Amino acid sequence: MAIVETxxxxxxxxxxDEEGNVSSINRALNRVDLSxxxxxxxxxxxxxxxxxxxxxxxxxxxxxxTEGYVLVDGKKTSEEINILDIRxxxxxxxxxxxxxxxxxxxxxxxxxxxxxxGIPSENIWERVEEALKILxxxxxxxxxxxxxxxxxxxxxxxxxxxxxxxxxxxxxEPTAMLDPAGRKDVIRAARALNDVExxxxxxxxxxxxxxxxxxxxxxxxxxxxxMFGTPREIFSRVEELExxxxxxxxxxxxxxxxxxxxxxxxxxxxxxxxxxxxxxCRLYSII
Amino acid sequence: xxxxxxxGQYYQVESRLHRLDPRVKLMGTLVxxxxxxxxxxxxxxxxxxxxxxxxxxxxxxxxxxxxxxMRAIVMIMMITVVFNxxxxxxxxLVTFWAFTITKEGLRNAVFTAIRLTYLILGxxxxxxxxxxxxxxDGMEKGLGFLKIFKLPVHEIAMMMSIALRxxxxxLEETDKIMKAQQARGADFESGGLIRRARAMVxxxxxxxxxxxxxANDLALAMEARCYxxxxxxxxxxPLKYKAWDVRAYVILFCYLALVVxxxxxxxx
Amino acid sequence: xxxxxxxxxYIYSKGTSEEIKALDDICLEIKNGDFIxxxxxxxxxxxxxxxxxxxxxxxxxxHIYYDGExxxxxxxxxxxxxxxxxxxxxxxEHQLFEEDVFKDVCFGPKNMGMSDxxxxxxxxxxxxxxxxxxDLFxxxxxxxxxxxxxxxxxxxxxxxxxxxxxxxxxxxxxxxxxxxxxxxxxxxxHDKEGITVVLVSxxxxxxxxxxxxxxxxxxxxxxxxxxxxxxxxxxxELEEIGLAAPRVxxxxxxxxxxxxxxxxxxxxxxxxxxxxxxxxxxx
Lengths: 287, 268, 283
What we know:
Chain A is α/β, with parallel strands linked by helices. Chain A has helices at about 50-60, 85-90, 105-115, 120-135, 150-160, 180-195, 230-235, 240-245, 250-260, 275-285, and strands at about 1-15, 20-35, 40-45, 65-70, 75, 90-95, 170, 200-205, 215-220, 225-230.
């Protein structure tokens, strides 16, 4: 069964002037259809202003559709009564770790979600321990988040969501503010949650190299889904991606350029460096 | 410079004071403040000093760390001291030009300085040894009776704890904004009062914009984690008094009694 | 224009238990017309270093000479120095404050003592050179997009007519489009207007593509100093300090190891294509 499903989802940002009259309407999402199965690792790619963050906020019932609907585990997000349930099932991690950590001590922050859910105290501690261990932050449980690195802060934020035992985690550009080491950390954590804990992951990003391991990739532009497929299918459409000004990984780009320069035997949609090297060696041996 | 403000920031260390129930610490701070205002005599201050030193020792927070946090309020202290020194009527000690220092003035100035210093040290001792979350819980439970008067105790406590958590972040940000504007030739240090006040605009506007954005983000993040007010919320660390908390209460009231007693009995 | 750093040390919270040595005996020279990439991971001291260049931080010991004059001399005009060394910080949100973009860009030149008219002229030409569309000149800076805000912030510094432009991670948080625009703009300023550029970054690919000269920092020290090719030939050393060469350099190394006769000093995709094609042709 689909854990997340959107149907003809449209959303308008409506701006009002001082008297409350509508001064402008800005369509951020336009008839988005998307379906995510339990246990999948989904990536949503897009540049700034493509609507990807707006979409994420719909899944967590922070924004409600102007038209169409969103179902999380079969429940409509637009119905008030479902909200807490949906937010527990579909947890959300935001871009800036500083603005989502509420506690002054790591373990207190991780306990915030379960506290809100009304979990008995002793169970909260079990959940906090489990979540921090999964994210590899257990030894930092007594630390102040202020003194952690960006990647560590983001892992604390993820642990805070994991402690709520969600079925699905939406990560809204979790790496945009991190350095390369922090980015690697967070992506590794996301993959481990998917592989080991079987939590559905919806990763929203503009870094293409982060989507290589996803089951499905959606590419958004101007509030619409423009491309959809496996990473390999997506990565083979270098020209279109470049038109959307997305950043193609160097291995993929090199393969694409080589093909253009006459190496037509190279396969489409090279994802990793290893793959490229293997393919080139194969070619070399033929020659 | 700004990052050295320690006022209100939690200091992580294992100590008896850290482990006390936050309600005890809140009450303790209150008692200590009352004791300072009851004190009119030197002996009382001696008692308060001994008490404060013992507490600081117990907290295991380095004294130097606490004192550094005081730097921010030196200006306020100077002003109060000067006012007291020159504006108290009484028996003249020294007179020069238009100013007179009186015996009472000197006494007031010294006591006010001590009172202010102890006030800050005492209350920062509470925030240094209590995490904002504990503090919130303590306030919420300790002041829970106010709910009868329709006071949103939980919300107020939550707001306070968030404010405390964001103090260091906003201080760091202030420092960055100051540098960014100085790099464009802004001058925060010279000129008269009005010029200086105007020079603050390029600092305050970005700071407010950022604070609002952060507040907005944080509200979203809290909602996303199922926050829906105090109702139906459980506690990770439910507050329960332990043996040491009761002992602490006893010590506190003995201390207060001692101060009141010396205030009445002592001649100086 | 030239900047010489002579045995610069900087210690945070000096005299306390939390003393941190942020810069450790830095000796450097920035020459007229350089395009320098300054790389290092978070906490390597690169941001601290650039804040010394325009006197925002004062070295604990050592000297900095701008055009032969010691900037720590008594009576040295620090404000004028900040006009000559334009420093753009990571987040434009930290500096934009006026009602409209144009006024905001005027802030720097006015502080430099320019008359209103000169300041406006400088602001106009700065906004022109960062290619901000004309219709955005008089909107609130808070209504701009991320990339536009950055351009407005750069214009705010350019309007002071600096000889050196220092950018502290100008592309953090931008999408690829925004990043290419900003870096392209910086390159143009360097090539066309002859401004000396110091670009602080942790993206190897960016630095390899744009800089003519790279300085690598680690733990407050300058670890390497050379052309991109020289720097990226030391892959192991870079990895030891948590950095890496551009991905394409790794591919070339791997191909070389597998028997390809390719150039391992390649740092950009374009060079790599030529090298691989060449190797296959010669096979």
